[in-house]
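Human: Here is a favour to ask of a fellow structure person. Comparing notes only helps if you start from a blank page. Give me a protein, with the fold worked out from its sequence. Please set it down just below, with no commentary around it:

Assistant:
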Amino acid sequence: MTNSSNDLCKSLPRRLGVSGPALFKYAALLLILIAGFIAYVVPATHSSLWFDEVIEYYYSKYMTGYVPGGYGTSDMYERICFTFQPPLYNILMYLWLKIYDSEFWFRLAGILTILIGSVAIFAAVDEKTESGLWANIAAALYLFTPAVTFYGLECGEYNLMMCFMSWAICFFIKSVNKPSFKNMALFFVFSSLAVLSQYGAAFCVMGMYLSLLIKVLRSKKRKLILTAIILTAATAVLVVLPLLIFFVIPQMNSMGNITVSHIPSFVFNPIVDYVDGIAVCAEFIFYNSMDNMLLKALVTVFVTVATISMVIAVVQEKRKAFYLAFSLFIMYSMYYAAVITNFYGYYWWSDTTGGLNFGKRYCVFMVPILIVAAVTALHTVSKKTFEKKAVSMTASVLSMICFACLIVAGFTNLDIIRWEKSNLREAADAWYDAKAYESTTYLFRDPIYYEEAICYYIEKHDGFKEDMMDRVMTCAVTGDIAYEDYYTNYIKGDEFYFVAREYCLETSVATLKSKGYDVSVVFKDDSEDFHVAQNYIVLHAVKGRV
């Protein structure tokens, strides 16, 4: 290497405005982002969209007009009011689909938001620990946390919410370390965007807001206190009140949880349910759908050690660790109260569901702050608890090994060889191969599942013609209607095709045969590799002899 080349290499970090170590940590982050991008993009379209994603597509694609699965609503606002989520995802996706419209492009939006969120996790941990190594570990751990990988490959509001939440946490930490109008304003902005993406974000936002408020009041600086008051008032007027009036109240009336009893309902008792809820959420977040006992044991150890480390960090660092720990406590306590009283959760609403609603997808708002808290707590303990350098180094290495195992487990959860959640694409291809468009097709729909989702792939097929949809009928089931009545009341004609969930197969065939139809199975996928069982069937029924 020539002298000029050596001089260039030595001066490059200075010319870029960073030191050698800083350049290394950003280069490492770039490699992590590239690896994450490849890991997500490879399986991005292995699986077809499933019905939730198709609903998100149609609700976002068209600002006005009827859409399949749209329940007859005429515009985006009415459609959003019928769902359980805020409007931001659908609005942003409307703009995204204006740029280009394809299955890959639709999923790419979620992948990019996950990657952008990991940069915020990196920045948050870097701000808290001043360690590029631990910041990069946090970014990688976030990218490959099983709950993140699961929803990173799903077109929905969760990846968008986690992205904004990650940046809100970053600026929360910056505001605690260096209170300023800029840091606090950005915290309020990203917090608002997170809540406008998914309502669960409000629990985490409230925890951080109360912590930051304590920090500001403790400072006794009039300028900071005035800043907090102005930002709070502006957020309340511009974000909170409109969201409540135009979305939250209408949605609560439609979703049913406002009509049930809100008397606390426990599985065991208040204390046991509080602790068990933590375990249920951690189980969902860190190993999701994976059935691996070694991973479960590792996650249990990780969560336990991270919790103990947080307690030790609070004792050691007092105020420095207090704000993040207090945010976690408020976040989970509010979430716990909302679940126990049947205001928030995953399952269908009833007076006695309560504690059974812990975990599942409605707890993913916890992921960013849990990653940041766990990594920073373990960093504090491994670096500051042990006086002997050898012991401290050993603790750090063990932490790294634990993180590496979790990252590998999350990467495995991506299943880049075959990520499957639905077979709608294959069912639609079989529908075309059978020339089902020449006859009437009935799409089964019960109160939970929406077979209209297949319309996405019917419309996206190269052979699609507008008049085909005139012969595609939706058969809505209301209440507890019996299958016998269902087929009698909704299905007519001497020949038709029938699309339904696989669980309907035996009943559908038996009932149709009892009505005098000869039934053949056009499509049925016997695969058991689906991460979420969304198997569809296509039947062909022709009137025969009774």
Observations:
- The longest strand covers residues 517-524.
- The two ends are 89 Å apart (CA to CA).
- The CA atoms of residues 209 and 234 lie 14 Å apart.
